[in-house]
Amino acid sequence: MNPCPWTARRARLLALALFAITMALPLSAAPKAKYVFLFIGDGMAMSQIQSAEIYANAMSAKDIKIQKLGFTQFPVNGLTTTYDAGTFITDSASAGTAISTGHKTLSGVVNMDVGKTVKYQPITEQAKAAGMKIGIVTSVSIDHATPAAFYAKAPSRSNYYDIAVQLTMSGFDYFGGGGFLQPKGAKGDQKPVLELAKAAGYTYAGTTAEIKALKKGAGKVIAVNEDLQDASALYYSMDSQPSSLSLADFTRKGIELLSDNPKGFFMMVEGGKIDWACHANDAAASITDTLALDAAVKEALAFAAKYPKDTLIIVTGDHETGGMSIGWAGTQYATFFDKIRPQTMSFQRFTDEVVKPYRAITSPEDADLTDLLPAIESAFGLTLDQLTPLQQIDLQFAFSRSMGIKTSRSADDDQYLLYGGYEPFTIAITHILNQNAGIGWTTYSHTGVPVATFAKGPGQELFGGYYDNTDIYKKLCAILDLKANQ
Q1: What residues contact 204, with CB distance under 8 A and at least 6 apart?
Q2: Angle, nearest 10°, between helix axes 469-479 and 92-101?
Q3: Which helix (H) or strand (E) holds 433?
Q4: DSSP alpha helices (H): ranges in 171-246?
Q5: Does residue 234 share a domain with residue 350?
Q6: Beta strand residue intervals within 96-248, DSSP E
Q7: Average pLDDT over residues 176-183
Q8: What's the pLDDT tens digit per position in 239-275?
Q9: Exposed, middle or buried: residue 381 (CB in 10 Å: 0-12, 13-18, 19+)?
Q10: Domain limits at 27?
Q11: Does the residue 417 lie in any domain?
């Protein structure tokens, strides 16, 4: 039996009053959490999120609806600004610094001030000092900017070896996902990172079997996926190999290894290849990796169901990438997300397995677009007769660029604007497919729009409203009863 209208109205008013009271409370009065998950979708703003929701619905229905993700159903959400100390369009290093330390810095700088002399302490170090276990998980290399912001300090995010050495010295309990970009230094003449890690007491698990065999009490662990794709990262979700572990798998394993601690844990999980897909304007890869991040969040939700009063889950983005839009001039008010369903491989895999091998055995004089039409149909579901005359011209032009065939314009005058430094032929294909679906892009870089932040668990009310990314750190400090950096 439904409650009477007055009872329902009183319940709503009471909920609003409690929310208002909570929002008015000082941070020091925030509810406390024992287990904290911080999920960061790198490059993920509302366009990336809603495109995944539209796609998920389009896979099973033709109606104009969305299929909400697990985290978009969280009870509290807000908008978060992302600008850094030098620009309104941040990068992952400065954005990660803001989230992990509460301080603005310059793009490219990890947990240091704009003068690159003062080091900032990330919340993970504070939590570790308070007795919590710490886990860092990512789908890209473990020494990349976002994960680095939670264990290292560096004047440049490109100091991969130094960042990796700091990982081995962190004393944190679990690192999972991708590998190392410079495991022996930039010149290959430094002491191997894994030797340093083992000397520091870390167990290294580098195969699927070894990772699955890890149990509680394993001590400090570095778990690297057996199958790595580009730049020591996990495969794009749509390219995953039979023996690959997913972001959800690494999250689940982290929960298993960290949850035996009486003082709880803090785990940062990054969906890093959402960003990489959007840099390359590959909507299908972005969508499927956003869904992979949501699958990892569901692992946290399963844990939270056992400890609802102690577990806080935050999902946010560090910035938006690609200027992704749901809407393109050629389709006007229409979208056709089912048209990207036939895509079976990411831009990266198509480049690596189709374009580069073909170019390696084919001279510019012998290169012929028709040679690759079967591969295009297999990978993207596109046939030449489906393309408009203009799309056919664009595809042929990009093919010529990729094959080194001379064109009417020099290879440099518009290369970045057209292809962003990626393989021209591949980008032309994904652009055509995305445009047919009604998805547009404005850039191959980041943008300055706010990102969405979602919260569920003790202290969730603090994450409603419109606030800066530095405030995420402050709110988390209050919930973990830590003293915030000044």
Answers
A1: 194, 197, 198, 221, 222, 223, 224
A2: 30
A3: helix 424-437
A4: 193-199, 208-213
A5: no
A6: 133-138, 174-177, 203-205, 221-224
A7: 98
A8: 998 889 999 999 999 999 999 999 999 999 999 999 9
A9: middle
A10: 22-324+445-479
A11: yes
